[in-house]
Amino acid sequence: MFEEKMKKLIQENEDEFHDFKLEWYAQNQKAEMIKDLFSFTNTSHHEDCYILIGIRDSDHQVIGVENDNNRLTTDKLTDYLNNLPIANNSIPNIKVKTVKLDNHEIDVIIIKNTDDVPVYLETEYRPKGCKKVIRQGQIFCRLNDIETPINRTAKDYQVEKLWKKRFHLDLPPREIYRARLREIDNWEYFETDKVGFRYIFDPDYCMYLESNDEGRNIVETYSLNQTRIKINWDTLKLMYHGQVLEEIMVVWLDGARFLTVAPNVDSLKPLSEKPLYFQYLLADSLDFAIEQFFLNNREKGISPNAVQRDTLLKSIVIFKDKIQKEKICKLLEDNIDTVRRCVMPSSDQLKYASAKLKVELNARQLQSFSTTVEQMCIEQNTAQYINRFIRKK
Fold first, then answer.
1. Buried b / exposed e across 140-158, counting CB within 10 Å, b at 16+?
2. What is the residue-averaged pLDDT of the chain?
3. How far apart are CA 205 and CA 214, in angstroms?
4. How far apart are CA 267 and CA 47, in angstroms?
5. Rounded CA gap, 53 and 62, in Å?
6. Neighbour order of strands in the sheet with 187-191
7. Long-range contacts at 204-209 (CB < 8 A, ≥ 24 apart)
8. Could you tell me the CA-to-CA distances from 117 to 89, 157, 332 in Å, in that order?
9. Gap between the Cα atoms of 16 and 35, Å rounded
10. What whole-number distance in Å separates Cα of residue 138 and Cα of residue 38?
11. Whose CA is closest to 38, among 65, 23, 19?
12. 184, exposed or middle or buried, with CB in 10 Å at 0-12, 13-18, 19+?
């Protein structure tokens, strides 16, 4: 998939997302390397950037770097950046990947997107063997295929965009929520006439919890292996300026000892007589941002302990995104008979699940689950099977 993406980029003209280099930077070109890396870090967009080395700029011909003595690995390039006097220790996240194309090797420097911009040096720096100097506070940016010259600094309007990106002021409210939720220590839990979480630097960002138990299951597959299996449901209302931006179902697990997002439900072979159901979250979703907020919260009674967390995540599939989910499900459905055999519960598992239900549920509640124990165990096993399959991939 990465190789195909690089092939596509080679066909396109340089822009603020990618650049071509014929060869790696020599020692006397290290100032240019710093400028290029900082320029692709200091972007106002929210995408990764790429420097493709071993490509002739004039005609996009693959030349290769297999005989280039100046090649750097991820570790060596990261070590180099770590030794620079970068302000606020805002070290760019850099990776180097090698791709084979047209019987050649090209190296791709991947500059990961970050909100921690602008990146600049806190003191003047001249790399060994270089005539050019990187000045203190000098900010490099890239607009289309044009970078800030090494003897200048970015224009005011470009720097303004970077500060807006840093403080998430360039995003719509839902995306700002995702960014704010990563600042877990900047939220406070409150119990007044309402219960919820408030962003301390801007109370217009506030999340309310409201009970929503009516008509909902008191046990789910992901609660079955917790110490206490009964669950309670709430609606988490994401508020902005008093308006509801989003409503997300959340669940109190293990006797209301911690909070988690209610996962989505899907199945393998949904049109067959016996679909294999599983519960999942997408890592690029707002739901998962909330889940990470709960999992890593320091407020007592919100975040699970290590055992509770591991038990929960065994029964839920975390896909990177919708594309990965569709790909994985297709691969599993192509071998569905094997999957069905592997997810069938053992007699011991069925006995254990039945015993847990009997301990916590009254006779009326138990009756509604008497015919679903096997299905719940299959659903649990399907999630675990998919998780193992993803790890092997």
1. bbbeeeebbebeebbeeeb
2. 95
3. 28
4. 32
5. 9
6. 187-191, 195-199, 205-211, 232-240, 243-253, 258-261
7. 204/239, 204/240, 204/241, 204/242, 205/176, 205/177, 205/180, 205/239, 205/240, 206/239, 207/236, 207/237, 207/238, 207/239, 208/236, 208/237, 208/239, 209/234, 209/235, 209/236, 209/237, 209/250
8. 11, 14, 42
9. 14
10. 10
11. 19
12. middle
Name the CA radius of gyration of the chain, rounded: 26
| 212 within 8 A of 233, measured Cβ to Cβ | yes
In whole angstroms, what is the distance from residue 83 CA to residue 75 CA? 12
d(C-alpha 309, C-alpha 226), whole Å: 10
Six token digits for residue 114: 């970050």
pLDDT tens digits along 145-179: 899 999 999 999 999 999 999 999 899 988 999 99
Which amino acid type is present at position 163? W
Rounded CA separation 106/40 (Å):
19
Say what the pLDDT of residue 311 is: 95
Distance CA 281, CA 269 (A): 19
Length of the chain: 393
Mean of the pLDDT values across residues 81-106? 96
Note the pLDDT of residue 115: 93
